[in-house]
Amino acid sequence: MYNSWLADPSSVHASWDAYFRNTAAGAAQAYVPPPSLAGAPKGHVPITALAPFMGGGAVAGGHVSEKVIDDHLAVQAIIRSYQARGHFVAELDPLGIMYADLHSHYKDRKGKPHEVVVRQYMLGKTIRGHHIAKLDPLGINSADLDDKPPPELLYNHYAFANWQNESARIKKEHELLLHNKLLTKEEDMGRTFKLPATTFIGGKSKSLTLKEILERLEAAYCRHIGVEFMFINSLEQCNWIRQRLESPGVMDMDANSKRLLLARLTRATGFESFLAKKWSSEKRFGLEGAEILIPAMKQIIDKSTDLGVESIVMGMPHRGRLNVLANVCRKPLEQIFTQFAALEAADDGSGDVKYHLGTYIERLNRVTNKNIRLAVVANPSHLEAADPIVQGKTRAEQFYRGDGEGKKVMSILLHGDAAFCGQGVVFETFHLSDLPDYTTHGTIHIVVNNQIGFTTDPRFSRSSPYCTDVARVVNAPIFHVNSDDPEAVMHVCNIAAEWRNTFHKDVVIDIVCYRRNGHNEMDEPMFTQPLMYKTIKNTKPVLDKYGDKLVAENIVTPEEVKDVRDKYDKICEDAYANAGKETHIKYKDWLDSPWSGFFEGKDPLKSSPTGVKEDTLIHIGKRFSSPPPNAAEFVIHKGIERILKARMQMVENREVDWALGEAMAFGSLLKDGIHVRLSGQDVERGTFSHRHHVLHHQTVDKATYRPLSNLYPDQAPYSVCNSSLSEYGVLGFELGYSMTNPNALVLWEAQFGDFNNTAQCIIDQFISSGQAKWVRQSGLVMLQPHGLEGMGPEHSSARLERFLQMCVDDPDYFPPESEEFAIRQLHDINWIVANCSTPASYFHILRRQIALPFRKPLILMTPKSLLRHPEARSSFDEMTENTEFKRLIPDVGPASQNPSSVKKLLFCSGKVYYDLKKARTDRKLDSDIAICRMEQISPFPYDLVKKECAKYPNAKLCWAQEEHKNQGAWSYVSPRFQTTLSRSRDVSYAGRPVAASPATGSKMMHLKELASLLEESMSL
Q1: Which of 59, 166, 578, 709 is paired with 47 by a 20 to 30 Å CA distance?
Q2: What integer pLDDT is reported at residue 66 of this predicted model?
Q3: By the 8 A CB rule, do 948 and 895 touch?
Q4: Which residues form the Transketolase-like pyrimidine-binding domain (predicted)?
Q5: Residue 306 burial (CB < 10 Å; 0-12/13-18/19+)?
Q6: pLDDT for res 188
Q7: Domain architecture of the chain: domains with CATH
């Protein structure tokens, strides 16, 4: 054993190591009792306490000084500092000096390379000292906008050598010289230190010299990969990342992998070159300067596919989209090239520019030999707007596949650097990542970091060190990587895919790159970034750099590099020739999730009935009105007991209120196998405490009962989801969810209708115009609590006028009357806008969303006071078989009995009907005034309005609304009334005057305005 110890002290147990060391040092006795720190002299500890750590640093007599302990603690501090702060000095900018080029660069200046200078260069981004003052700068900006190295990463921050005792002359030397002197002191650099359990730089070795420790830490954290992960509050996850970054040889790639990487980089570069050659004057938002994105995405897909993923949903801005479609999704090049031709569309709709379109592809992944489904969601110019839509679409696909852990379906989101930190929807989307009803079980985010936002320097466009700092809020690890080191990018992509598969949490890859051509191909970046673009002009493309590297490594020959380029160029030329034969653009080729079989075999102008059997209504009503089956054990709130009893009484009386009508619509669809998902802020209870779809045990946390999930043993699932306090993000999520499967009713409810203001981008760019631009149908329902109740301007109006303004029906065109008049209107409109006044109307219009042979978004103004209004009730007779949604409800009172004597015909919509009805009764005008309710405002019910006006030939016509004159429906219905009547009769307005604010904040003024509205409406 002693001989073994002499050959290798680590080959024996630590106790024998201590014994032999003490013997060799001439200790009084070989055996030393176990250490007792309390009994040691002040400033010393027994040698056995440090035997495994000292690496030959024992002192005769069996004790060591505190200095040795401090040195070991300093090593641990250094290791942790590199792990936590190394990213600040990593070489991330491809426009700066690469580490691999530094030796030759310095050699040109000084005659020979100097390892110490290289290390100092890596550790300190700001180069100081006259010896290397002429070195080129590290690019224009640092990735973290800070050129100062953290002091924890400077060796002299830790006083290993007692350099305070150096002579005054040395002290006055320049900081760099002093630093280099310390780094080269053999007694420091040659000392061996035991590695803590929180590092993997040693591989199988448990100790290294200080020199090896510094070199390996620099290689792991300060070269071309900078990682932020130490903020993660899980030791397991931190160690997982450390192991994949620090283990020796972990970045090694075999020759075949390098050749594949070169081929993919060649295709990415060749595609952009081909487009630039054929369409030099066209905008395409090419990928030049960030071509590594294509191999990166393909590597993530390969790795994820190998780990079991079968479907990937992707969202991205415009930069590089065509390249992603061509070389990641493998969309036929002919279809892409056709988009550059000035051809007419073969499909309905206005279309969109080519770099906004999405696609859907199923193909074989040749690397893993597994089938993969890839979808890229269409996106407008509103950067990051597609983020929540991708997440909703991914969640829906996971739901329908029964993929509760996200093992088969995943999402990838691409971002620009300026948008990632500047767009609030990024934060909103991140905050959905771990919510039970919204998680997609981990998303891989890739930031194409151009280091510039259009023309704005990042130092003026963000306050955070990195553009990716928003991701820290959800403990997502962030990998910054230099785009000009393709192998480092591949390594990071592998880690990201494995992280997502292991922990099912978000991860961010920040590819630091540049835009070779400016914002787009027509842009002149030298106007605002002259220094950056002078550097870019002198920067070789990454393909040339990597090709030269592989040639130098004898992986490929120059001829092979050229051959790969020429082959891809021929593929592009052949596709270009085929594209020239096309005569039309087919937008259906660009659908991101085609609904296979949904439209086949259906009459596009025939809708299924929406009424249901009375037995079904009774069954749903009773189940919805009953306490949990284990009511003796499940304690519900006393207020809920009263609500349930009131509901049961309504069912027995064969009538429904708003909440019961909604529950019957949902329940009857669930019975038919239609999945229903209701989402939004506080939707489980309902903002106005009317819904109560989730009952909570009053004494047991998280114990709940969902009546609508327990209607039938074989019913479809019902999801009711309280969301985060987000409109933009959550509405986008639900839109994406609705796009996946047409046979589901997906609803988003605003807490108050006014709150849709903060989701306007989703409304304008996706819901209103999505079908026209992208042939993308959706049956999403937006529930918008609306109505002036005297609660102030922010709790009154859902801005009905905005939705109506975006409707595409022509106000001057009366469609031909036929049996299919109503459904043809629905087929041709972009969305449906309704303001129902009865629970039966609400019941039918919800069911009609599924009954239609196509899908249209439904914008539904829902009430507040009508939720409990005693007259806002409907009979079962209005909901049973052979009943349907009434676009317009005519007057059925005394006025309708003698229409020729009616003096005034009022048209209205929504809750104002009940105010008008009461005012008419109070004034005893029931025979003089008829009131018609327009339940569906758009598409405008021309045929029914024409019929009602003809029924009352002598009546004055008037539109009454509670909203102000420049708001509400008046500006929409007025010209359509004139078209209906051929301008033969005038239609007057009764309501509030014009105003800038949606409503007054004064209750007294509100009542005064209401009285004036009613007085004007009742005047004959």
Answers
A1: 166
A2: 75
A3: no
A4: 656-869
A5: middle
A6: 76
A7: 2-61 (no CATH), 69-246 (no CATH), 255-590 (3.40.50.970), 614-878 (3.40.50.12470), 890-1018 (3.40.50.11610)
